[in-house]
Structure formats: structure tokens, C-alpha cells
Amino acid sequence: MNFKKILTVAAVVIASGMAGIFHSASADDSFSLNYTALKNGTNDTSMADQFSVKPGSARIVGDHYQVTLSIETPAEYGLFPVNILQVNGQTPSLSRSTSDGKSVITYTFNTNNLTDRIVGHMTVNIPAFRYSGDYLYDIVFDATGAPTIDGGKVSEDQAQEGAKAAQAAEQAQNENAQAGGAGAAGKAASNKNRPKAQVTPKAAIKHDKKDKAAGKSLPWWPFAIAVAVAVLVGIFTEWRSRRAGAKKED
Ligand code: HEM
After folding, report:
1. What are phi and psi of 47, to 5 degrees?
2. What is the pLDDT of residues 122-153, one digit of tens each?
3. Which interval of the chain is the signal sequence (predicted)?
4. How does pLDDT run across 192-233, given as a tens digit for each residue?
5. 126 CA distance to ligand 1 centroid (A)?
6. Domain residue spans in the chain?
7. Which of 1, 80, 156, 162 is the most exposed place for a label (fewest CB within 10 A)?
């Protein structure tokens, strides 16, 4: 093999190696993706939104998007109070981590497009607050500018459906925060909205039957009958004694 041939082979090997690197880098290229969690079937912001880590991320894998989102809860809610059971009809792949006592649950699921509303199913269990919930919630993405599967970019028009709902919800949240006197919108406000109160779910409140009976006022009609009978007996007795007196006089 002469020197020229060796150089050519080396160049081809390096070029194909680099192509491989670049190819896998682009396949793994994830992009950040803004989103809002909404109450299922509404445009109202879900309680889950204030615990959602923004932005999320996504990447194109073959013919679909793989989306990764996280929920972070404070230390006082205990270790991993949130579980994600289903997203977009799939069992998501989950990973859990902690930082400074905060729990982070990260879930990954697939979707064919970023303009659809996605439905998720979560459970929340916070024994310290005697709170547990089993909820559906919706996810809408603000997908403007995100890469499309065919190599383009999601246009504003395409993203509008999802983004509109997301923005409306975000705006409503900020307005609520301002109306509540929180002053600054955004994270500080949503932290302020975070429930601190202890909640006992209705199902857990057992009403004692005895307590209920004790609290109930007694009916009025037995007293009325008793008084009426007493009056009648009194009249009858008086009438009898008068009649007996009258007979004696005879
Ligand atoms: C101590 C903390 C919490 C309290 C006191 C609390 C309280 C409540 C209450 C009172 C409701 C309304 C109940 C109902 O509509 O049936 C609710 C709904 C809900 N909560 Fe919580 N919650 C807490 C934490 C969380 C966390 C950490 C998450 C998830 C990250 C969460 C997610 C939800 C969801 C998804 C709903 C359904 C309505 C919606 O989408 O906003 N909650 N919560």
C-alpha cells in the first residue's frame, strides 16, 4: 500500500467516524419545550402546574417525539408523593431523584405531534397533610419553533391551538395571583398559592352516628300532644268533680 492509499483510507475512516458521531448527536438532540398542565378537560391551570418543572424537553425518535417532563415537590410533602400512572395512553418511563430534600419525578412518553392536548393520570399521596388524590390532568405544549418530524419547524399557526390554551391558562394564573395581592407574577406567586393547609379528604371524615343524633334537635310534636292530653285530662277531671258536686247538692 502506498502512502497515498493509506491517506485515502485514513480520510475515509475519519470522515465516516465523524459522520457517525454527528449523526448520533443529531438523533439525540433534545430541545426544550414549554408546556402547561391544565385541569382535565378545561383551560384552567391545574394544581399540578405549579409543581411542574419548566421547560420540559423533547427529541425526535424515528417517527415520533419522546417528551420528558418533571414534577418537583417540596421536602415537607415527603419522599416522592407524586406518581404518574399514565400519559397519552401509555405507561410512562419514570425516574426519581432528590435534591435538597425535594423530590423530583421525571416521566417520559411518546407523542406523534406537539399540538395535541395530552391526558395524564397521576396520584398524589401526602400522609403528613392527610391528603391523597387520584387525578386526570391535561398537558398542552407551546410548540412554536419546535422541530417537526419531517425536518421543518412547527409554525405559529400549527402551535396556536395548544399555545393559546396554555397562554390563556398562564394569564389567568397570573391575574389570580395579582388579584390575591401576591404582587409578583410567576414562580413566587405560584409558590404563594401552594396549599399549606391540612386537608382531610371527605372520604376520610367519618361522621359518628351518635354525634349526629346528639346534634339533631328533637321533634316538637310529641310535646304538643303531651300538653294537649294534659289539658284535656285537666278539663275532664274538673268537669267530673263539678258534676259530682252538683249531684251531691241535688
Ligand atoms: C399538601 C399539598 C396539597 C393539597 C393540600 C392539595 C389539595 C387539593 C385540593 C383540595 C384539590 C381539589 C380536590 C378535588 O377537586 O377533588 C386538589 C386537586 C388537585 N391536586 Fe392537589 N393538593 C396538594 C398537592 C398536590 C400536588 C403535589 C399535586 C401534583 C403535583 C397535586 C395535584 C392535584 C391535581 C392534578 C388536582 C386535580 C385538579 C387540578 O388539576 O387542579 N396536588 N388538590
Report:
1. -60, -30
2. 999 999 999 999 999 999 999 998 999 988 88
3. 1-27
4. 334 444 455 444 433 333 333 333 445 656 657 777 777 788
5. 10
6. 29-193
7. 1
Q: CA angle, 88 as apex, 172 and 138 as ends, to 5°?
A: 15
Written as nine digits, the cell of 114 is 406537539
Residues with CB under 6 A from ligand 1: 39, 46-48, 51, 71, 73, 77, 81-82, 124, 126, 129, 131, 133, 135, 137, 195, 199
Minimum CA distance residue for ligand 1 atom 36: 47
For residue 134, report the distance from its CA to the centre of ligand 1, in Å: 9
Contact 80, 103 (CB under 8 A): yes
Give the burial class of 113: count Cβ atoms within 10 A of its Cβ; 0-12 exposed, 13-18 middle, 19 or more buried.
Answer: middle
Is the previous residue joined to 55 through a cis bond, with omega within 30 degrees of 0? Answer: yes
Distance CA 229, CA 207 (A): 38
Q: Residue whose CA is closest, atom 29 of ligand 1? A: 48
